[in-house]
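Quick one: structure tokens for this chain, please?
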Amino acid sequence: MAAHYQIEGSTSAAISASVESGIRSGALAPGDALPAVRALATGLAVSPATVARAYQELRQRGLVVTAGRHGTRVRPRPPVATRRAGLMPPPLPGTRNLSAGQPDRRLLPPLGPHLAALAAEIGAPTGYAAAAVLPELADAARDRLAADGVPAEEITVTGGALDGIERLLAAHLRPGDAVAVEDPGWANLLDLVAALGLRPIGVPVDDDGPTEPGVRAALAAGARALVVTSRAQNPTGAAVSADRAEALRALLAGRSDLLLIEDDHAAELARVPLHPLAGATPAWAFVRSVSKPYGPDLRLAIVAGDEATVSRVAGRARVGAGWVSTVLQRLVLALWRDPVTAELVHRAGESYERRRDGLLAALAARGVTAHGRTGINVWVPVPDETVVVTALRDAGWSVAPGALNRIAAGPGVRITVSALDKADLAPLAAAIARAVRPTAPFGFTA
């Protein structure tokens, strides 16, 4: 723990509030260790049970994580606003940043012309009563999803994929419930699960998606929800194959106690066909964001699902945020209808594929195993994340350590290809090979 911050309090509520205050102020930084329960109890002259209750409350709120022999630490991204900007250290000056996980801004379609056209035709301002999911957007979304085999009679709109997943989990689950998530998986989702007070169960992932034995084990362990990334899985690039989808659909068939959530965030950028699980369980939802293909600032996702599930999400939105801006909905609809934009998105998908496949081939030529069937990320299993991240940093490359993405999966690093050009692939692969120095093959599942 930071030596200059002293936790205070004589009750569990006061102790947890003191820790939260330290996190807000930045005195307790992400990753900082908290005192052992008995040591803090002695220092505060309270019972160990009082400190244990405080730590339990902090865990349930997603502010801290208990990591066995490593004790209790502040989560890498605790769900509380801090006074210090940026919880992750920025890349060192002079290094190439391959850690961001963002699309190449050079390949995003321009929004200006569509905004200008929208300004000319939008008409009278919309009132509260008229604000909802635009019928024309819903119709277009149904057509696009139906083309990929997703039943989409019921549609609503949320403020991005993570917002949709949060609303789905909150509508069906309660704190303490178990959620099956991919391992390694999307760091933001792992943080969200913690912030909601839910219990994550890691499901191993291979190139074809969540493994059948892993899902089976999660169900046996009491998972109330399962979140699956359809394509471009973050961080491994996995995509659910036809055979894997068939096996998982058979496994999940009729599970009335399970909420199935599919995340197809890559959408039009994906260069592999979609093999949806939609409808395998009575309660299901399919979430498709527009941020990766069209721009991260477009905070909009389509949510399709069974009637009850979609109704819960839409109803919860009505008593909270209300609706997703109809101006934003109109902008997304204009982008969908524009053939020039469609061609730009198609070219972007091909560009990511060339860069990703090129890096994988360069790594394979140097004896380094890596994964990345789809999307903008490559996952490289490594013996020691700290050693590899440091070695690559010294060689001029900033990559993301896999610790933020893992529950029980083996160590690895995530490399985002959107900042790479063709000329970068060989020198980067050589630097990775020197950093990894593999002596035996490593898998990326636990």
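The mean pLDDT is 90.
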